[in-house]
Amino acid sequence: MEEDSKKDHRALLNPGEENELEVFGYRSHTLRSALCFIASVLTCGVLWLVFFWRPQWRVWTNCIPCPLQEADTVLLRTTDEFQRYIRKKVICLCLSTLKFPISKNPGDPLVADRHSVINKAILKPELKLRCIQVQKIRYVWDNLEKQFQKVGLLEDSNSCYDIHHTFGLGLTSEEQEIRRLVCGPNAIEVEIQPIWKLLVKQVLNPFYVFQAFTLTLWLSQGYIEYSVAVIILSVISIILSVYDLRQQSVKLHNLVEDHNKVQVTVNVKGKGLQELESCHLVPGDVLILPGKLSLPCDAVLINGNCVVNEGMLTGESIPVTKTPLPQSENTMSWKSHSLEDYRRHVLFCGTEVIQVKPSGQGPVRAVVLQTGYNTAKGDLVRSILYPRPLNFKLYSDAFKFIVFLACLGVLGFFYALGVYMYHEASPRDTTTMALLLLTVTVPPVLPAALTTGIVYAQKRLKKKKIFCISPQRINMCGQINLVCFDKTGTLTEDGLDLWGTVPTADNCFQEVHSFASGKALPWGPLCAAMASCHSLILLDGTVQGDPLDLKMFEGTAWKMEDCNVEYCTFGMSDSNVILKPGPTASQSPVAAITVLCQFPFSSALQRMSVVAQLAGEDRFHAYMKGAPETVARFCRSETVPKNFPQELRNYTMQGFRVIALAHKALKMGMLSEVANLARDEVESELTFLGLLIMENRLKKETKPVLKELSEARIRTVMITGDNLQTAITVARNSGMVPRGSQVILVEANEPKEFAPASVTWQLVENQEDGGVRTETYINVGNSSVPDVEGGSSYHFAMSGKSYQVIFQHFYSLLPKILVNGTIFARMSPGQKSSLVEEFQKLNYYVGMCGDGANDCGALKMAHAGISLSEQEASVASPFTSKTANIKCVPHLIKEGRAALVSSFGVFKYLTMYGIIQFIATLLLYWQLQLFGNYQYLMQDVAITLMVCLTMSSTQAYPKLAPYRPAGQLLSPPLLLSVFLNSCFTCIVQICAFFFVKQQPWYFEVYRCSECLLANQSDFSTNVNLRGKNWTGNATLTPGSILSFESTTLWPIATINCITIAFIFSKGKPFRKPIYTNYIFSFLLVSALGLTIFILFSDFQDIYRGMEFIPTSTSWRVSILVAALVQFCVAFFVEDAILQNRELWVWIKKEFGFYSKSQYKSWQKKLAEDATWPPTHRTDYSGDGENGFYTNLGYESPEQLPREKGEFRAQSTEQHFFTRL
Question: Which domain of life is it from (predicted)?
Fold first, then answer.
């Protein structure tokens, strides 16, 4: 019973998806809530503040656990490594508020859709349902399944028959009202948050709360100047943050605002057509598409064709033709029926309808699938509002460091309590001084200082036309050691040039027709296929569409016209286009071709086909074009030339883009039969027509950039949807695969009836040797394969199909392949994202550069995604380059490295600054003293504040170093740097503190302040300053300020602060030399000059203002020498030892320390494995009783899963101090 209760208390939301959440049920408890309220009042709101930072504590203290069915509050927890909590109230919706009677009979469904969760969510006879709103998505409680289910969409379990017959005529007005209440409005609303709300969120940041406490304490002690300076800086920082957040909010609001104000026409069952605002649309509504329209929802086309611009989704402003969902009567899910090709029936929210083509059955109609934030555009906006968290080591380490400094402050607090209580000081003074010491170790300028490096880097990137929507990722770019590139439009030119055609006849390839010759393409089936098999449209008299289709069509010299009466036979729609020979086309017996039906291209299917009619003929023809290997599979084997693989390889090895074409005559004569044709029927038993060869040139920037990355030891990988051989050639030509390196082709096959899954390893150079292939049954992971000559330099190449099989059946092999995998071809968008994630699991910091077409998922998944497209889809990418080439990649890495090194330098500096002040203050506290206000002010404002704000402005070094900067604060060099500098500071300050007491002119001023005032002339004589009218500031200052100790320690501490700023501002190899940062260099020299001037000056006003006591010149020289000796020792240790990379490499090697990165471990293992890499062999899966190994996590190639228990990609946008 108890187990059932625990089970009912917890459930999963969105299981298996990227935004998976655990949900726990809680019920409010009056007594607990009352006690918490009283405690909040008694602690002056501190408890409330803690609850604000930790919502889970608020729920645990105010509520009691209960089954989800009874909960009025739920606690949600992310299932990633961050385990973040969200608190939500359960909302109750009442259907009794609707203005029409509703059946309370439990047997009567409220909505016609039998699959709908709405019927299972509404309790009868109460007519109530319970729901929660999480990250803009509404979930209702399913009373049958006992879990929260998403609403605002049609269930995927609906079949094609259900969609056509249940929703084809529209919903009744009553059902529309019920769905509106349950699903909410069809609106993507981005609230422009009020400034006061943004301000409160910023101010309640834990660090600012600590800062407020520190400044209040300092102000109460009269330390006004620095406190005011920090307050001004913090106010500016908060205002800039609020302004930035507000601007982003306004920009996003404006981006989606028009979406909610579209006037649409829907078909209401029993009432006919009705106009309404798009915000009133509900899933199941039938939408009428009259013409040009910005789609306000996701909808599935059920009647007619239309052309849409999907630039918002894909990043390519290319017209895409959408076809109606077939009227199949089987019961399988409509998505399963269309396989990966279901997207060709779906009109996505935010895309533009630019042309409609009604059928003979009335206007173009579509059934609303998803509304609001469930849509494609809604998902894009949610990815911006709730970005995938990134856990960069720097921020988690910085948080630990701050905790350490705070602990140091706590020790100081107890030390101060002990000292002041021992000397029997008043309780008020004891508490105040102890709290002051507590605040010394954590500098209040830390948040502003740590973000300055990123701000400077962002400004420099802007100048290079690289824009960033996620500034915290700039630091992460400094750690990138692997960059994935798309091929077409990224490494190669966007446009393709026609090279020639290779027609076939009698099962043989014929002579090549070269377009360079200037001769027109001769008429034949190949020419007809090139003229008709495309998705081009005629828009405002201009032919528009995919660049490849445009080039192919231009090669035929035919032209496109609107349909006219002469050719519109068989009752064809006016929206069909006519293709006619142009003036320069070769002579053709056919006057025109009309395209009647189109099965669009999809990257998953790698093919497209059309049904066309030649003028003067009664029959119809089917034409297909696509990837050669794909097209050949659909052709009759006797029509495919026997030397097809060799011919294809011949062209792809030269880097050409190859398209195959095929044809068949259809045995039907009625247009109505054409309209009901299934794709499978058209795409079978075709005749192979030949190859179209296109040239895809490398961009001129590609080779030098790839060479630069290679010299910097940054791995480069190609992920493309193009042919594998073409990709290999481009990789060789671009230098991604260096000369002399071997390319091993990895080809994996699914298990068949009597054979397990297999992986074949083949050297690309030896594919034509016809060597005997050894075949052995082995257990995957213990493969034994022949050695490869020169095997130290090899690259794996594979297709998306092979990647899918290896992921599912040979998962243990995947890391071995990925550490040397360079070429991944024919990859679907889902596979690209999965591959990036698998690289991240190997501890690579992954950059992804693509043109946005099919790369959106991978761009979001990578640590640093760089989009070369300016389309709306690229908004989800952290970085966007206005220059459409890959030069942006090294620029970004250089700036990332400079920003990272700057962050480390500033952090080390501020840590040391806190420790220097802490040690000096500890020593002065020993005799109940501290520095004067102006002494602190000089250190805090004139040095630290100015240094922190300019230290990070040093520009990035123009050349990429062959290694990365340290990525962890908690690393031996950095910890040793802080520790050793702290030791040097401690030694020098303690020695100075005790040596000053040994001087013949020394006496304890703090014990004799009255005597000092009464005997000013004697005092002056004692210190060899006879004749000076010294009065000091003793009349205004308590005896706790004036002392020889503070006069001695202050210049040592101040010069130490200046010198460590210089030591920690390392230039080469990641930043330019320090002298190029003119402002910073000037400030350091000025601060040092001013400090030495104050030290050696004998001006009474300076001494009075700085609250010093004059000392002998020889002692001042000793102070300066001590400070300079400390600088020399610290500089030598930092530069010659701690920053000596060769020394650390040698230490690691001698003591056997190895990198913990997964990819390094695999590289080491594989380097020691004489049997790796395998070549010229086939391995079979053979694990377990049935002889198969299967990755149980695998679902589908389009949405490859993430392993929950394994290492996840480092990832979080949040600043580390928000994790307090």
Answer: Eukaryota
